[in-house]
Specification:
Strand content: 5-15%
Mean pLDDT: 94
Pfam family, one: 3HCDH_N
Distance between the termini: 38 Å
EC number: 1.1.1.35
Structural class: alpha/beta
Helix content: 40-55%
Number of helices: 22
Radius of gyration: 28 Å
Number of strands: 16
Strand order of the largest sheet: 3-2-1-4-5-6-7-8
Protein name: 3-hydroxyacyl-CoA dehydrogenase family protein
GO molecular function: (3S)-3-hydroxyacyl-CoA dehydrogenase (NAD+) activity
InterPro entries: 3-OHacyl-CoA_DH_NAD-bd, 3HC_DH_C, 6-PGluconate_DH-like_C_sf, 6PGD_dom2, NAD(P)-bd_dom_sf
């Protein structure tokens, strides 16, 4: 029979503890909250008042409901006051010795059947539980910040946690209106184990001056639909908290990708902890303020150098090529669309027409503008037809020899001073440039699919790209309403280099039978606000495409953690490629 839980003890009234207390009280439970001293109690009550005031202002709570909620929370500075509670949730700072001490004391003052839950985000529940005489009744109950808003709760069982304790805690989390996932006791659990490797990787990119903080953050927002970029998110979490979580994960996994980037330690030592200190990767107008005061970075690109671009050549007939042709034609550029045969060229123009017609139906484009855009696209079959254009964008198959043949042909016919761009997502741009006699004029312009919709373009400069070519590419992106981000010519550029190791980590987690694909997807969507879970995304991208990108990353960086998960290799070999074949990580 499930435990009757009507009164809950909460130890620690920081941001997390106060949020958990609010969730409990909002569900009609009585809460006994314990803090170290009266100052801590007052701070905790301040968090509660502030949060419930916001709920009141947002219409999520009325005045009577707010008063009743606050009335259900009783604060104290003595753990002995928890003698009659039915469950205790500990939410003190991430320090194993301090948590162990709290659990030892709780063991002496509560009834023997009371369950103890720790809200730790990275410490071992097993190590905490052994400090009690009831390790079978100790679990992790990891709420996400802000607790009143975020639905995910990771319920962490140890090897000795009693099965009925796990089921009772899951049922209790559901009663609070949360989405619980059950997992084993491993550093970082699901969400942090996948999230913090990605965040650490972004810090390393910034540390190496591979991309600016604005470009890193914009790339993941516009390229993946993430609610926040990695560096802005680290500022929100707190750099000291992030360092502790990564350090704990590294000591358990010995995975170099979890070793905290040295820059994190330097910033923490300098007191730059993120929003809470008023300065982290960004500067804020006050501690705890979300208002950034130095968001405009001085651009590394001199816009005055840009060459004039009026006509554009697009090579290819696939989805990406037709999308790019549409983007330029809609913005008033004359487009020469080159295909291998006139049938293919005309079929591509027909695809553009279909897309423009859809935009008209949706009211996003007038019939006149659609007709004018279509009239600007001229289908051709010969490279010579591109002789007079100012910019050529190559969008043929992701095969180096094919792209090199295109660039070699372009070098013969395109006028001097024209910019030659490739849309490759994973191949080295310099290899395309090397097929020409003008490597300074070659650049990467990585549009994202579908090109008419996605705002992001990665502008990839090689060591040979001339500064005025980078400036031209940047100006062209702005002219077609895209958001350019700049980076060097390295496998994966920004987005794929950050995204695919994270996806690979998720596959390894599934492979280790640590959690189900559904629970991992739920954790990342509900806990981190991502638009899709990793397995949903892999199935959409295609497992063969994902594997090819992961192999490219591994071959370039030779980083052990980037080696593609064997499970992914096996699924591709078995022909389970995702949605396009009807079977991937999930069946469709």
């Amino acid at each position: 029979m499930a435990r009757e839980i009507s009164t809950v003890g909460v130890v620690g009234l920081g941001t997390m503890g106060a949020g958990i207390a609010e969730v409990l009280a909002r569900s009609g439970l009585d809460v006994v909250a314990v803090e170290l001293d009266e100052a801590g109690v007052e701070r905790g009550l301040g968090h509660l008042r502030h949060s419930t005031e916001r709920a009141l202002a947002g219409g999520k709570l009325d005045e009577a409901g707010r008063e009743a909620l606050l009335g259900r929370v009783r604060c104290t500075t003595s753990l002995a006051e928890l003698s009659e509670v039915d469950l205790v949730i500990e939410a003190i700072p991430e320090n194993l010795a301090a948590k162990a001490e709290v659990f030892t004391q709780l063991d002496q003052v509560t009834r023997p059947d009371v369950v103890f839950a720790s809200n730790t985000s990275s410490l071992s529940i097993t190590e905490i539980g052994v400090h009690t005489a009831r390790p079978g009744k100790v679990v992790g109950m990891h709420f996400f910040n802000p607790a009143p808003v975020l639905k995910l709760v990771e319920v962490v069982r140890t090897v000795v946690t009693e099965p009925d304790v796990v089921s009772d805690v899951v049922e209790f989390a559901q009663r609070l209106g949360k989405s619980p996932v059950v997992i084993g006791d491993r550093a970082g659990f699901i969400a942090n184990a996948l999230l913090f490797g990605y965040l650490n990787h972004a810090v390393r990119m910034y540390e190496q001056r591979y991309a600016t903080r604005e470009d890193l953050d914009a790339a993941m927002r516009f390229g993946c639909g993430y609610p926040m970029g990695p560096l802005a998110l680290l500022d929100l979490i707190g750099l000291d908290t992030a360092y502790e979580i990564l350090d704990t994960m590294y000591h358990q996994s010995r995975n170099r990708l979890h070793a905290p980037a040295p820059l994190l330690k330097q910033m923490i030592t300098a007191g730059q902890l993120g929003r809470k200190s008023g300065h982290g990767f960004y500067a804020y107008d006050a501690p705890d303020s979300p208002v950034v005061v130095d968001s405009v970075a001085s651009s590394t690109v001199d816009s005055s150098l840009a060459r004039e671009v009026q006509s554009v050549g697009v090579i290819g007939t696939g989805t990406m090529a037709t999308g790019i042709a549409e983007v330029f034609a809609k913005r008033g550029f004359d487009v020469v669309l080159r295909a291998r045969s006139m049938d293919k060229a005309e079929a591509s123009v027909a695809k553009v027409k279909k897309s423009l017609d859809k935009a008209v139906v949706k009211g996003k484009l007038s019939e006149e503008d659609a007709a004018a855009a279509l009239a600007r696209i001229r289908p051709v079959t010969e490279f010579e037809e591109l002789a007079g254009v100012d910019l050529v964008v190559e969008a043929v198959a992701e095969e180096l020899s094919v792209k090199q043949a295109v660039f070699s042909a372009l070098d013969e016919v395109v006028r001097p001073g024209a910019v030659l761009a490739t849309t490759t997502s994973s191949l080295p741009v310099i290899e395309c440039a090397a097929a020409t006699s003008r490597p300074g004029d070659v650049i990467g312009l990585h549009f994202f699919n579908p090109a008419p919709v996605m705002k992001l373009v990665e502008v990839v400069s090689t060591i040979a790209t001339a500064p005025d070519v980078t400036a031209t590419a940047t100006a062209v992106c702005a002219a077609v309403g895209k958001h350019p981000v700049h980076c060097g010519d390295r496998a994966g550029f920004i987005v794929n280099a950050l995204l695919f190791p994270y996806l690979n980590d998720a596959v390894k987690m599934l492979e280790a039978h640590y959690a189900s694909a559904d629970d991992i997807d739920t954790a990342m969507k509900v806990g981190c606000g991502l638009p899709m879970g990793p397995f949903e995304l892999l199935d959409v991208v295609g497992l063969d495409v994902s594997l090819a990108i992961e192999r490219t990353l591994f071959n370039e960086f030779r980083e052990e953690g980037f080696a593609p998960a064997p499970l992914l290799e096996h699924l591709v070999t078995a022909g389970r490629l995702g949605r396009k074949t009807g079977k991937g990580f999930k069946d469709y």
